Amino acid sequence: AGPRTAYRKVESTQHVDPLTTVQRLQARDLAAGLEDESATLEQWRVRRALANATGLYMGEIAATLEIPQPTLTRGVDALVDSALLYRTQSAEDRRKISVHLSTLGRRKLARLDALADAHERSLTALLGEQMLDRLVSSLQILRHAETPQT
Length: 150
Description:
Low-confidence stretches: 1-8
Radius of gyration: 19 Å
Structural class: mainly alpha
Shape: globular
Helix content: over 70%
Oligomer: single chain
Distance between the termini: 11 Å
Mean pLDDT: 87
């Protein structure tokens, strides 16, 4: 079992390194464009998650977007302070607070989405639509796959 486990570790490193590098490069490029609108990548992702929801709890947002709770709290606080999001208290459990996208937040999100769409069009131009679709499908499979035990 030892040599086989060692082989798997080397093999996974060969996949993790390029995936991590590409993710960071793409995130950095998109973040640079979003910065022109005074938004961070995480704040844009939070707004996107809230756009199609009637409100989400912080734990739901953190789990869905894979954002650490302290980072999420800082980002949401800044968006609430800017009137782009607002919080409401649950009628059933007063300890639960949900986060919602404001009307101003929706307008700002439309501008941020336009920047993200331009970023995606440049990826499509580079890779081609079919290849990009296959890549995204493969990444979705990996995201939802059960993590193997080592």
